[in-house]
Each structure stands twice: as structure tokens, then as C-alpha cells.
Amino acid sequence: MKKVFLKDIAKKLNVSKTAVSLVLNNKGDENKISQETQKKIIDYAKKHNYVPNQLARGLSRGKSETIGLIIPNISDSFYSKIAGYVELKAKSLGYTVLFSSSSEDPKKESELIRSMLNRQVEGLIIASTQRNLKEIESLKEDKFPFVLIDRHYPESETNYVIVDNYNGSKTVTEHLLKLGRQKIGFITLKPGLEAIRQRMLGYENALKDFDIEFKKELIKELSPVNYEDEIKLAVSELIKFPNSVDSIVFSTHYLTSVGLRELKRFNVKVPQEVAIVSFDELSAFDLVDPPITSVIQPVKDISNIAVEILINEIEGMKESIDNTRILDSKLEIRKSCGTF
Amino acid sequence: MKKVFLKDIAKKLNVSKTAVSLVLNNKGDENKISQETQKKIIDYAKKHNYVPNQLARGLSRGKSETIGLIIPNISDSFYSKIAGYVELKAKSLGYTVLFSSSSEDPKKESELIRSMLNRQVEGLIIASTQRNLKEIESLKEDKFPFVLIDRHYPESETNYVIVDNYNGSKTVTEHLLKLGRQKIGFITLKPGLEAIRQRMLGYENALKDFDIEFKKELIKELSPVNYEDEIKLAVSELIKFPNSVDSIVFSTHYLTSVGLRELKRFNVKVPQEVAIVSFDELSAFDLVDPPITSVIQPVKDISNIAVEILINEIEGMKESIDNTRILDSKLEIRKSCGTF
DNA sequence: CATCATAACTAAATCGGTTTAGTTATGTGG
DNA sequence: CCACATAACTAAACCGATTTAGTTATGATG
């Protein structure tokens, strides 16, 4: 089964490449190609399974019907869900998605942005490392369509779709406080990320509202590079004297998993001795022992809205929709923080 | 910051496009471009941040340094992990990966294959719906490089990397038998997939080896489209009289999650009343109540080997490595099947 | 009947690279 | 000093589409 090209069709049917191209791009009518000719072309193309070479198409049109999605890590369930929904939504609007993982490395991220631009993507959705302000600003300058998700640059005015990290974190911390917990630890990544900073702030202000003294020792900030090890130390320090926390807030699902594994290894009873809650969840968190109270992020909404904003902008319907969104998260109460 | 093109560089430096192209592709020496000229070009390109347009490059070379990965669903943690490892490995070998999800739809899958070919991918890694034999055969005919992963077409001779589903399933079933379980249910998807068929066969033969009568009623085959609902019925039928199973083998991690959720809703004690085991696991399965005994698939190996085979073939080092692999899975024993 | 509009097309430029098949200038051996 | 090799380049074709700026034939209009 040989590949057919535009010129093959043209030659076989004794028409010009132009005619074939126009017809197959649904521009036959507006260019007054006769119905017979159109039918002839379409039939032939169908019969021979013609599909245009996207590279040639993209090159000559300067377009590609493709958007890029840059995320820190496709293996992380949070981002893989986003990728799934973005792909679905984009496809429904006629776009293909190019994924790539930055591995939380700003340099790689900026390479990816460039590489995607070379591939003529028409827009980008980026869950940024948040250490590429320059690159982002330059996209903005070039008026290149993009939407930040999950993480944004508060110092720069861009499209973004994020969740309300502050309130999500505050709410879940308050939940612990209402249940009578007083010594609440907080395990998080070093706040290079605004999202993480907001989660920390939410935690702090919840304490404040309950007139509980904020203690620096109860906050454990892990370096993003090898937190696997650090978290073990962090957990053990929190549960021991003099900290002896009665509960821990974990700022990502991954930290929660690893942390809980540690708590179990130390034979700490959860939630009796130490209650835990998680910002963001894993699909099995309701099955875990104990089921983990989590702040659930509206993954589907984030994805859909981001794609909508982006394609809206690509297709030039300026300003027609709200292009900065802060979505609410949902507190799913389970047994890991005890009950009323 | 304006984009620079090849011809801009050529014009500015008073050399030909050819020279620039050759030099930037590391073919300066073999084409006897003088060192000065080379340096001049390289310096200018670096200073002005030149990056070649991949579409143009791909179009003219008929290559793209890109491979395609087609999986059923990027949101599924099994496939998202594969995607992550494939991306990593491919990048380390100089290739970019184009992902896409087929949603388990053969028609979509065959569209994706075509669409990827149009994008000039140089090879494909496919976790096929296994209902596209024709498409696969035609790839083979065209001598287009591809590797099947996770699912292969036993009736067709191709490259593939899969796990030993039969033995994995047999082993885990035997494990239940050794623990004295006798009425073992099996919940699976309708075996359109060879992998699933093998898992079922493993289960059956384990029973046979233990002289336990194989009962059709204990096997529940769900339709892949709305198993969410069907599984609830399946679980309830299995645990009730006259089936009253003492254990269940779930054939995918997703079925395990949903199934366990159902068991809990029925207040069935796991593993005391019904032991469960899972083929394939979720990252939190060790934290679940009870921790779930699982057959763990070597996701990283699958990915790495598939990429190696593929790129080996793309780069024409024919036959130098073994191109059909059946990898062993690992039985991770946890508490969901009771203990010795 | 000359003019103009319109229908129905097409030739050729273009996108931004790669690659083939030269060309020119210089040096070397006989 | 001529023939030839070699170094150091370059013009132009090409990849497979899209798109601009025409062209031709026909029919209507005044």
C-alpha cells in the first residue's frame, strides 16, 4: 500500500495540486471548484486513504493544529490525569497535544518550550517549574498564546488556571483544629513554588485563627531533589519529643504516601496518635488504612478550562472568556484525621 | 527577540545556506568547511539562539528524531509510568516522544497510527487495542519500525515486549491455593486481549494443578465499556451463596480498587472472609487496608527495552538484539491474602 | 459587438530546512 | 607548464503541502 501525495491525486485526476488542496480543505465551494471536480477529488482521496503530511502542512501554513503541554512529570498521577483530560478536550476541539516532562528542571523546561515552538505548536499549556520567568515573559511579548496551570507566576500577568491553594490548605488545617488537634506538623517541599507557599500560608493562618502559636519547628521543608530520604527524617523528628505532634498536614499526595509509610514503620497509630491529611490525592486514598482525608483538586476542570482559554486565544476570540481562574478544591473527609 | 532562520545566518555571514546547514549539523569537517567559517557560523548561531524548525527539517529529511507512543489511556497509572520511562529513555538517545491515547478504541488507534506517520515519526511503540491486526500487518509490510508493548498479536510475528501474564497469574493464584483458599473467584475484562486471556489461563491451570474443579460461575468477565457498574454486580454475585468465594483474583489494578471498594461496602472482611490479590498494582497498594498482594509488572524494563529495540531498528543495526521479550513479573506478598 | 463579470480552474512562489551536483581557486607532481 | 587533486565553498532541486495572483472560457450587459 503506497502512500499517496497531493500531486499523485492531481496527476491521476488531471487537475492541479491547487484544486486538490482546496477541495480537501473544504475550500472548494468558496473557490468555485465545480461539484463534479470536488466529488471526483474527494472520492479518490478517500479511496486511496490520502492523509496530508502534517509536517508539510504545518510548514507551509505556519500552523499545526497542535498545542503543547509541558508538565513536571507525566508519571505523577496528578499530571497524568491532567494530560488525559487535556488530550480529550483538545481533540474534541480539533487539536492534537504534544506532551513533555520538564522533570522540574527549569533549563529543560525552557528547552522544551523552544522545541515545541519549533514544532509549530500554536499554543502552550504549562505547569511551570516557576523558575523561568524570563521565558514566560518572552512568550508574552511575542503574544504567543499560552496558559499556565497548577503553578503560575504571581509577579507576571498571564492566563492561568490554578486551584485555591490557600483556602484548600486553610480548610483542611482548620478541620484538624476543629477536631481538637493542637500540635499540627506541616511537611512540604521547599517553597520555590507559589502553590506550595500558599499552602503553607493557609496552614499558618488557620493556626492563627484558632489562636494557636505557630512553631517553626513543626514545619519541615524538604528539598525537591531527594525528599525521599529527607521525609523519613522529617517524620521521625515531628513525632518525637519535644515536637510530638498530634497531626500532620502533607502538602502533596506523594509526600502523604511516603509519610504514611514512615508512620507505619514507626508503628504510630493513625489517626489516634497522629492524624494526617493530604493536599491532593491519589485514587486509592479512600482505600488506604486509614482512608486519607484529602483536599481534592478539580483536575478535570483545570484541564478543560485551560484548553478552552488557550484555544479561544489561538482562534482569536480575544477577551471573550475569563482568562485567569482560581478554582475551588474540595475537602474529602475520611478517617485519617479521626472523627467528631 | 526575532526568530533567526538559516538564511538569515547565511546572509549575515556571507556564506551559503548549505554551509550553515552543514556546519550546524556537524557535517562541516567531512564537507571541508574551513575551521574559521565553522566557528563563525557556530558562534553566530549560538549568540542568536538559532534553533532549526523541526517541521522543515523533518519534511526535507523525511525524518524527525521522533518516535510515537500509542497507549490506551495516559491517565492510567500503568501507562503513565510507561510514558514517563519511555520519554526518559528516548530523550537519552536523542529522540522526542509523541504520545497519544487510543481510549481502547481500535478505530481511534488506527487513526493515531496514521496521524503519527504523517508527522514523520520514525518508529512506534504501541500498546494496542489488539483489534487492529490489519494495520499492524501493514506497518510490518512497509518495514516501518515498531514495537508492541504490554499487548501483542500472537498470530503475527512482530517485535514485542510483554510480561509473562500466564505465569504471573498462575503464581498469584497458586499463592492463594497454598494458603488454603479453595473457592477462588476471578474478575476480569472480557478477554479480547491476549494478556487477559493469559491471565485467565494462568488462573485455570493453577486450579488444575491443585486438583480444584474449575467453575465457570466463579469467573466474571466484564465488558470493557462500563465495567464500573458491572463489577459491583460481579462482586456481589461472587460473595453470595451459592458461589460464596473465599478469595478473588482481580486481573487489573483498576478492577482491584473498584472491587475492594465494593467488598468494603458489603462489609466483607478482607482477607478473613475473602482474600484478594491483584494483577498489576497501584502505587498506594502497600498502604491500603489491607495491603494488597500484587503481581508487579516491570514497568521500567518494559519501557527501556521497547525503546532500545525500536531505536536499534530505526538506526538499522538489524537483528543485533533480541526483539521479542517476555519479562517476568514479581509477586509482592502483602496481607490481603492472609498469611501462612 | 466590445466590455465586463463570473465560473472554473492553474502556475508558481512559499514555508525553512537538507542534499546533490557542481564550481572556483590553489597547489602539486611529472 | 599542463593535468589533476583537493580544499572550500555554492546554486538549485527537493521535501509535500498551502496560497497568491493569475489565466481562460463562457455568458450577460448595454
Overall description:
Two copies of one chain form a homodimer. Chain A has a six-stranded parallel beta sheet with strand order 2-1-3-4-5-11, with helices on both faces. In chain A, β3, α7 (133-141) and β4 (146-149) form a beta-alpha-beta unit. Chain A is α/β, with parallel strands linked by helices. The mean pLDDT of chain A is 92. In chain A, 46% of the residues are buried. The radius of gyration of chain A is 26 Å and the shape is elongated. Chain A folds into three domains: 6-52, 434 Repressor (Amino-terminal Domain) (Orthogonal Bundle), CATH 1.10.260; 64-162 and 299-327, Response regulator (Rossmann fold, 3-Layer(aba) Sandwich), CATH 3.40.50; 165-297 and 331-337, Response regulator (Rossmann fold). Chain A has helices at 6-13, 17-24, 35-47, 54-61, 77-92, 106-118, 133-141, 165-178, 194-209, 227-239, 253-265, 299-314; strands at 66-71, 96-101, 123-126, 146-149, 160-163, 184-189, 219-222, 247-250, 275-279, 293-296, 324-327, 330-332. The longest helix of chain A has 16 residues, at 77-92. Helices cover 43% and strands 16% of the residues of chain A.
